[in-house]
Amino acid sequence: MPLLLLVLALVCAACADPVPARQAVERSRLAMGSALRVLVWSASDRTAGAAIEQVFREFDRLESLLSVWKPGSDVVRINDAAGRAPVAVSRDTIMVLEAAAQAGEWTGGKFDITFGALTDIWKFDHDQDNRVPDRQAIAARLPFVDYRLVQVDRAAGTAFVTKAGSRIHLGGIGKGYAVDRAAAILRERGFTDFLIQSGGDLYVAGRNGFTAWTLGIADPRGPAGRTFATIDLSDGTLSTSGDYERFFIKDGVRYHHLIDPDSGTPATGARSVTIVTDSAMLADVLSTGVFILGPAEGMALVERLPQVDAVIVTAGNEVLVSSGLKGRLTITAPPTDAP
After folding, report:
1. Residue 312 has pLDDT above 70, yes or no
2. Helices (H), 212-309
3. pLDDT of residue 125
4. Over the chain, what is the mean pLDDT?
5. pLDDT tens readout for residues 37-57
6. Contact present, 112 and 101 (Cβ < 8 Å)
7. How far is CA 253 from CA 23, 98, 218, in A?
8. Which of 36, 38, 174, 247 could covalently link to 256 via disulfide, CB atoms 3.0 to 4.6 Å apart?
9. Do the beta carbons of residue 120 and residue 129 sit within 8 Å?
């Protein structure tokens, strides 16, 4: 075949079978008590959709292990056996409990999964009743709140809460762990550009099409959807804990779900804490722990930890930014100031 005809034939063959253009494939559903959103950039809607469904199944599997609301879960069985005997649990539960213990050490006990002993009087899950418990009821629970009561035996595959009446609750860490597992699943299936968001926990990988992922930080007193700052991020996570997520106001006082384990009452030093790092589980525990520690001690902890950054909106509406985010964070408007 003449060279010119060969070239034309190759060109026509390429035109007849073009490389599929990538598109954003997005699915959402409810999982672990929060909205779960997954967006994957892919040339195949079918392949991306199948991967997202696997992510959804993984969230369901982890919820069946880590939730206090799922009969027979590892957490329910640990709590039922508190003070009596260790319980055989999954590798996932062991990893979460070990990470929770580390966070307890970092924060001097301010991140404490045994706050579960208070959840029958402070109700902020789907059972929220907008009631403030009396001081005697709170004081009666405090002896059962101590993260050091949780013992994990990795070799034996068991976990044990050593004091009867103590209860663990993984609401400040479980979703972060699930987001990390979801990211691993998508990577194992060959995806490099994606977003996973579960409530206040968010992980992004690669790029958003042809541009960076630009993520907003919610204005803790602004209307729904309003942000006060943005950051470009890739292969990293952003987690926010705030007093505006699950709360009620009574007699002019805001009560919310981030309970200080020392006092048994909602922490008061901040309005929101956003952690930026490379692990969603790490960001999840630190956003909670730093919030309860308060702005000064919380930011000091962040500055000590490698590859961890934070944006804190204090109770006085001041915005504090860690050193690693200087020049990376854009404040688009001052956060709204309101009670």
Report:
1. yes
2. 280-293, 295-304
3. 86
4. 94
5. 999 999 999 999 999 999 999
6. no
7. 47, 35, 21
8. 247
9. no
| CA distance to 49, 67, 192, 200, 301, per residue, from 33 (Å) | 22, 10, 27, 12, 29
Q: Give me the residues paired with residue 272 across strands.
A: 242, 313
CB 102 within 8 A of CB 136: no
β-pairing verdict for 194-198 and 201-205: antiparallel
Radius of gyration of the chain (CA): 23
- Looking at residue 18, its pLDDT comes to 55
Please name every residue paired with 331 in a beta bridge, in sequence order, or none if there are none. 229
Helices (H) and strands (E) in the chain, counts: 8, 18
Residue 211, both tokens: 């541009």
d(CA 56, CA 249): 34
Among 14-28, 145-159, 170-184, 200-214, the minimum mean pLDDT is found in 14-28
Query: Which residues have CB under 8 Å from 57's CB, separation 6+?
Result: none
Alpha carbon of 246 to those of 146, 153, 168, 200, 255: distances in Å?
23, 34, 19, 12, 9
Cα angle for residues 324, 242, 39 (degrees, 5° grid): 75
**Domains of the chain, CATH where assigned:** 23-63+177-331 (3.10.520.10), 68-161 (1.10.3980.10)
CB distance 220 to 243 below 8 Å: yes
Q: Which two tokens stand for residue 87?
A: 């319980």
Token pair, residue 322, equals 């860690």
